[in-house]
Every structure is written in C-alpha cells, then in structure tokens.
Amino acid sequence: MNLRLTNQKSNLLVLLFFLGIIGLAVYVRWSTIDAKTILDYDPWWYYRHAQEIMDNGLVPPKWDILSYYPPGRPFDKQLGWEYIIILFYKIASIIKPEITFFELSKLAPLIIVSLGTIPAFLIGKILSNKWGGLITALFAVLAPTFIGVSLAGYLDNDPVVMFYMYSSVLSMILAISKKSEKLFSMKSMIYILFAILVNSLFVFTWGGGWLVLLLFTAFIPTLFIFRIIESMIHSRSLKISLPIKEIKHYIILIAIIIAAVNAFAFLSGLDNMLKSVSVLLGFVNPGQGLLVNISVAELQPINIFSSDGFSSVAGRVGIGSFFLAIIGLPILVLYKLWRKTPINFFEVFMFLWIFATFYMILHGVRFALLFVTASAVASGYVIGNAAQLFKRDVIGVSFFGIILVLVLMFISDAMVIGAQSGGGFEISQNWVDALTWLKQNADKNALISTWWDPGHIITGFTGLKVHADGAHCGPDECFPYNHNVRIQDMGRIFSTSSENESVSILKKYTFLTTQQCQEVKNMFGSAVPSNACNPVTEEYLIASNDLIGKYHWMSFFGGGTAQDYIQLPLNNVDQQNGILSYLNGEITLVRRNDTWVPVYNNKLIIKEVVYFDNNQMKYEKSNSTDAIDGLVWVQPDYRSIIFMQPEVRNSIFTKLYFFNGQGLSHFKLVYANDELKIFKVIF
C-alpha cells in the first residue's frame, strides 16, 4: 500500500512538472499575442493558404495565382499545417463562436507546441524513465532557436515540424521495438499502422517529412556494423557475430512502413522518398539547387571549431542540451560497452540521428531545429539513465546539482529570449501603411515587384499578385520564369544603371505570349485557370531600406559582381574644428564654408556628398582633379554615412530609394515613408 501511494505521489509530481513545462512553453511565447498582424515573412504563406482553403469549402484551390505571376504556380500540395490551423479554428469556434480566424492563427503555434510536449515526453519515458521524459520535453520546447520561430502569431511550419519529428520517431520506436510480439500480431499491426499514419501526415505537412524514414533506412547498415563491433568488444576477440535475426526484423518492418508512405505520397501527388533526398541536398549544399540559396545566411557553412561557430550552434540549441548530447551520450554508451551492457537499438539510432542533424547544422543554422529534436531526446536519455546509475552519494548529488543548475539557466535564458524576441518580428507600421495604400489604391490585377523577401506579406496582406516570394519555385512549378530567372532579373532591375533595361525587364512580367501561355497549359493542364495568362493592368515597384543591406546579393545575381553600400557609424565629434569622424576616421566630414566636405583617410576628398540641412537635401560636388569618385550619403541624423562607389551610385535602386526617382521618366513616386517608397512603373 505504501509503495502504491508513493507511486501515485510520484506520478502526480511528474504530471505537475509536465503541466509546468507546457505552461512555460506558452509563457515564453506569449509576448507577441497582441500583434496586429501575422509575424515576419514566411508565416504569411501558411496564413493565406489556410484562409483560401477554408474559403474554398475546405478544398485547396488548384492554382495559386498570386505567387510568381505571371502565370502563378500550382497550389502547394503539402498542406498539413494549413489543415491543422483550420481544425484548431473549427474547434475554437465551438467553444468561443466570436473568435476570428486571425485570433486563432496567433494561438495556433502555442497549441501545437504544447501538443508537441506529449510525444517528446513519451519518447524520453519509453527510452529511460519519466525523469528522462520530462527533460526531453523541457529541452524540446524551450530550445532558444525554437522559441523565436514559434511565438504567438509566428505561423511558420517550424512548430508542426517539431511536433511531427517527435511523433514520427515515437511511432517508429513503437512499431519496430516489439520483437517479442509476432511480426503481424494485432498489436504489431496497430503500431505499424500508427507509424504509417504519422509519417504520411508528416510528408503531407513538410517537404522534409521523409527525414525520419531516411534516418531509419540508414539505421539498418549502421546497426549491422555496430553490432559486429559490439560483439568483438564484448568477446575480446576478432570473432564476428552477424546480427542477422535482429536486422531482418527491422528491415521487414521499416520496409513495410516506407512502402506504404510512398504509396500515400504517390496517390497524393507528393514527392517520393528518393526525390526528397535530392531536394534536401539542394539545401545542405547551397551551391546546388536554387540559386537564391547561396544568399540565404541560414544556409551558409559553420566552422564549429571557431568561437563564433560554436557559440552560434550551442546558443541555438542550449548549452546544457548540446553538451549532454555531444559528450554525455558517447560517455554513457562507452560505459555500457565497458560494463558489457547490451546497447539498445535506439542508442545506435540516436548516434545516427545526432550525427546526421549535426552535419546538417554545420551546413546552415537553418537546420538547428532538427538538431534540437535529436539533442533533446539524447539529453533526456542521458539524464534518465544517470538517475538509475548514480547512487545517492557525493558523485551522484554533485552530478544532479550541476544538471539542476543547467536546467535553471536554460529556463531563465528561455524566458529572456521569449521576452526579447517579440518586437523584432512584427511588421513595422511603415510597411502596414504602405501595404494598406496598395490594397486601397492598386488595381486588383496589378503586379507588385520588389526583392523576393516580402512577397508573402504582400500577397497575404493585400491580395495582390507578386513577381516573386520566399516559396522557392523551380522550373517544374514555375514556367516560363522560375525562381532563378526571377531572382537574377530582380537583381538586374535594381542594380543596372540603365532605366531602359530596368523597365524592359519589368515589362516582361506584365504578360505572357500566346505560345508561353499554351506551354503553361500543356504542363499543368486543367489546374491552370482561365485568367492565369491575363496581362496585368499596372505594375508597382517597392524600394525599401532593408535592400540597402541586401544590395550585395542583388548586384551579384543581377550583374555577377557583388557590390555594397558601405555603411560607417559616427564615432567622434570635434565641435571646435567642425569635424565628424566615421569608423575611426575612415571617412570624415569637415565643415568648410557652410558645407560638408567628405575626406577619405584624412587625405583625399570624395567627389560627391549629400546631406540634410534644416530638413533640406543638399548636394555638393567637388571639382578637385584628384578627388575619389564616389558619393557619401549622410543620414539626416548624422549618426551614420553611406559610401557609394560609382556603380552603386548610378544604380536604379539608388536613384529610386535615395533620390525618389528624380531624373527617371518611367518611375512615378506614388507613396513614400521613412522606410520604403512605392513607384508606379510607366511603360
């Protein structure tokens, strides 16, 4: 009876801790609940598509006419997250009929994050014990990199990917670990069907949804080799013992699940397992696949042995979780080998899981979330086993004292990150005002062009067509102008010095020829709506201040040579001599005859300067024969300057954003604020 009461108290304590983890997960993401719009760029893609599906009687449209116009593109087929959002809304409407779709959409990330703690906890509990389950759930939902992409209103697919990663791994553990059961017993079949269902939904939700099945495929030869090495270590000889029976069991079950999920993918028109490998390689190796991946900072390689590289990876995962996974798991396995304790199949899988996702994160921090899933499970597994191995002595108390400190630091960091993350993702009021102007003034058949980043926001907020957006679109989906073509064209539109060339490229996207339209219909058949080839009635071009920093890639894609707006901060003011020093004297502004003269390295005058005096723009040009050719743009507050080399100075982007289109005959400024300017293109 006392033992039973003790177990009940222990289970109640675990339940309270588990609910506390869910409460913390929601709390650290709550800071953006009052946001007036969906956060950031990509979340708008899912918000818009979920709305369109709901407005279309829960049936997805065949064609997305707003994205990559003309002519648009086939509607996305991986819609699991969109349908989950709709399901949440339908359930919430029963409980609270007055709730709006927008209000529910802001809550959707919090709901799916909370649900994700369940499979995370169950994995940890099955593999070790309830304490391992709690640690797994805690490290899963409070990982620094996860918080930033699952805030209230951040409707990107990261939370649902995490949910399915844990659910998929859990389903595979249940399906293949019951070796005591007959292969096709009722219980085994239920687990197999569960694994098929979960992995099919994962594939339906995310292009990388094959990842868990790919890992379990690679797990077969990995386990085979490990068992041979393990037997040699245990026997202290070179005698090889082949684990044929064990491997055969795993091969049969994994093959059944993979075949069934591939069949689902085929019937649903989704990529099969082999195709997903090539897509994944395109992201892991940015030089392959879509051209734009080269410019995505999150896809650039990381040197883990550098201080910056280590800080970047460990900071995103969490120091405690990182070290427990990278160091703790190998130590635990080596200890078991030394004690001749049989290594569980999942320990072998965890090594593979951690190695694969660690390799991926070294090729881009975008994959940090995938490493988080592996490291959280490994951390829970290590701590759960440690709870059984360590005695209540000095060593045991010291170990768990350190773990407790790491956990408290982890929770504290998560709360700070949650509080600080909110503001940076909200769409600024300047953008809201500009998009509102477009929504109210642009023709419904207008095309909005700019760099690809804000495309999702533009379509989601205004309902207008865009030239490009962040949903990568290769030649199989976007014809006649795929993502690579459009990125190069847009870079050229902004970086060329020729207005005629810029306008000529913009005009290319206002219509399709009869032949191009027919080729689109031949490729996509009845999915193409009758208005997909209609010419646009007008086109607008947005020049925004964020493109100053992105000009490097615009000029690279548009002309093959990367150039930059060189921004220098003010670091010294000599009021007595009238000298402003920027970047430790790299460039100074010298007051002379009531004008500012820019001087490079205290030696050479820079030919042109633009500054503001009493809110009036002033332009000065030096007649000195040895002046450096270039322009210094002084920001109105004088806290920074921008140096432009001649090629940058003469670019269309400079003429549009900095000079409001002065001197250009094909770009009419129709809206402007401190952050962006909208031009109507006059053909």
Radius of gyration: 29 Å
Rounded to the nearest angstrom, the distance between the terminal CA atoms is 87 Å
Task: State the strand order across the main sheet.
Answer: 6-7-8-9-10-12-13
Number of helices: 24
Helix residue percentage: 55-70%
Number of strands: 15
Number of domains: 2
Approximate strand percentage: 5-15%
Oligomer: single chain
Q: Which sheet architecture does the biggest sheet show?
A: 7 strands, mixed, barrel
Pick out the low-confidence regions: none
Mean pLDDT: 90
CA-based shape: globular
Class by SSE composition: alpha+beta
Explain this structure.
It is a single chain. By secondary structure, this protein is an alpha+beta fold. The chain folds into two domains: 2-32 and 77-423, no CATH class; 547-681, no CATH class. The chain is built from 24 helices and 15 strands. It has helices at 2-27, 43-55, 80-95, 101-127, 130-141, 144-147, 158-176, 186-205, 211-235, 244-268, 273-284, 307-317, 319-338, 345-362, 368-389, 394-425, 429-441, 455-462, 483-495, 499-508, 514-524, 546-559, 646-649, 652-658; strands spanning 63-64, 73-74, 447-449, 465-466, 539-544, 566-574, 579-582, 587-592, 595-600, 604-613, 616-621, 628-634, 640-644, 667-672, 676-681. The protein has a seven-stranded mixed beta barrel with strand order 6-7-8-9-10-12-13. The chain has a five-stranded mixed β-sheet with strand order 4-3-5-15-14. Strand 14 and strand 15 form a beta hairpin. The longest helix is centred in the middle third of the chain and has 32 residues, at 394-425. It is globular. 42% of the residues are buried.
